[in-house]
TrEMBL record:
Residue segments, region Disordered: 1-20
Presence of keyword Heme: yes
Keyword DNA repair: no
Xref: PROSITE patterns: CYTC
Record-given protein name: Cytochrome c domain-containing protein
Swiss-Prot/TrEMBL keywords: Heme, Iron, Metal-binding
Length: 398
């Protein structure tokens, strides 16, 4: 098979040639956009799932849908070591520019509020580079979104942005990736702002994406967050959807798979979108001709696994210290000993038993892995890998 015509795209956040299995989410989001634009009550949206299920790809697709409807949009990626102010200000600056409000004075006022919001984080004695607001030439609006209380400031900021959007008959959507990495104060402020916006009916929504424990993070911040957001779990693809993700791009290049090959691909990938792209690329490059067969999949699987071992699993494993790696291996062994779902949660007590240690002594390693995003805790006393098939990798290669 010609590698130049290989249609598969195993990249981080890179849209696959066929976005299979997400039609329901895309259709539901179109309804949200229309309702908000018409002043109807609607909740902001939160996407959750393991790494490799396509949350970022879907987030970008939803943003594209908003852009096509003439909305102002902005996107940011949360980081645990960064305040929300600066990246959110950049996202809103872009959204305001996309809105194209006809009155420049109104636009300048909101841009000034954005500038005021971000400069408040820098402080009066901050260096010039920390007080600089790229592209915002409007002067800061004093006394608006600059109190220093991020909750008060964010409510004022999004209210002003929402008012500008309402004037145009459109809306503003802010897309936040890795939302679980927001600081506690920023999460609380964001929930409060969404709550205020939902009551005022302003056309602003937040679309967040994060790991499976994100709902618990939001709930711990504001109890009403359970009713504030519409939560959608993004999971692996069903067999028919996984087949479509492989077959449709191949058909565009006048190639095909036989039924046994598709079955073998689903067994190998588990239906996880990133793995489908990785295996698809390897199989295409090594298959001698079309149709691709189960034998071709068997030949290419080791190559796909080597690529995943280095770029997907290995890069994460290398971030862990020796003690943390022992903990990860113990998690994999505990799941295997219990016959548990390979992407399911295991009890911390079972992990401690594998290591023959008391659970309390392992708390530092567990907490460090949680902060690094290698594991998550969806319920008290239980933990799971954030990456599908990570346990299998640890047991066979690491």
């Amino acid at each position: 098979m010609d590698p130049i015509r290989n249609p598969y795209a195993p990249g981080a956040g890179q849209r696959p040639p066929e976005l299979a299995g997400r039609d329901e989410q895309l259709a539901a989001f179109d309804v949200v956009l229309e309702r908000v634009q018409r002043g109807r009550p609607e909740r902001s949206l939160v996407l959750t799932g393991l790494r490799g299920v396509g949350k970022t790809v879907l987030l970008n697709a939803l943003r594209g849908a908003a852009v096509r409807k003439g909305w102002g949009t902005g996107k940011l990626e949360a980081r645990p070591d960064q305040s929300l102010r600066r990246p959110l200000a950049s996202a809103l600056h872009q959204a305001v520019r996309e809105l194209g409000h006809p009155e420049q004075s109104e636009t300048d006022h909101v841009l000034g509020v954005i500038r005021s919001f971000v400069q408040r984080d820098a402080g009066a004695d901050a260096k010039l580079r920390d007080r600089w607001s790229p592209g915002i030439e409007a002067p800061a609006v004093r006394g608006r979104a600059d109190s220093g209380d991020v909750e008060i400031d964010l409510v004022e900021l999004l209210s002003d942005v929402g008012g500008l959007a309402a004037d145009t008959g459109k809306g503003v959507a802010v897309f936040i990736d890795e939302m679980q990495d927001l600081g506690a104060d920023d999460v609380s402020a964001l929930c409060a702002a969404c709550h205020e916006l939902s009551q005022s009916g302003l056309p602003v929504i937040v679309v967040g994406a994060g790991l499976p424990h994100l709902p618990a993070v939001l709930s711990a911040s504001k109890s009403y967050s359970e009713r504030l957001f519409s939560y959608q779990r993004i999971d692996r693809l069903e067999r028919a959807q996984a087949d479509r993700a492989l077959v449709a791009p191949a058909a565009e290049e006048e190639a095909s798979y036989d039924e046994d090959a598709l079955a073998a691909m689903y067994d190998a990938t588990g239906g996880y979108p990133y793995f489908i792209q990785a295996y698809g690329k390897a199989v295409w490059d090594l298959a001698p001709r079309s149709p691709i067969t189960a034998a071709d999949v068997a030949v290419a699987a080791p190559e796909a696994e080597r690529e995943l071992a280095v770029g997907f699993f290995g890069s994460r494993f290398e971030r862990a210290t020796p003690g943390e790696r022992d903990y990860l291996r113990a998690m994999a062994d505990a799941a295997a000993d219990l016959g548990a779902d390979p992407v399911g949660a295991v009890a911390t007590a079972d992990v401690a038993a594998v290591l023959s240690k008391k659970p309390q002594s392992l708390s530092p390693a567990r907490d460090a892995l949680l902060k690094k995003g290698l594991i998550y805790s969806g319920e008290r006393g239980r933990i799971a890998f954030t990456v599908p098939h990570f346990g299998r990798y640890l047991r066979t290669q690491a």
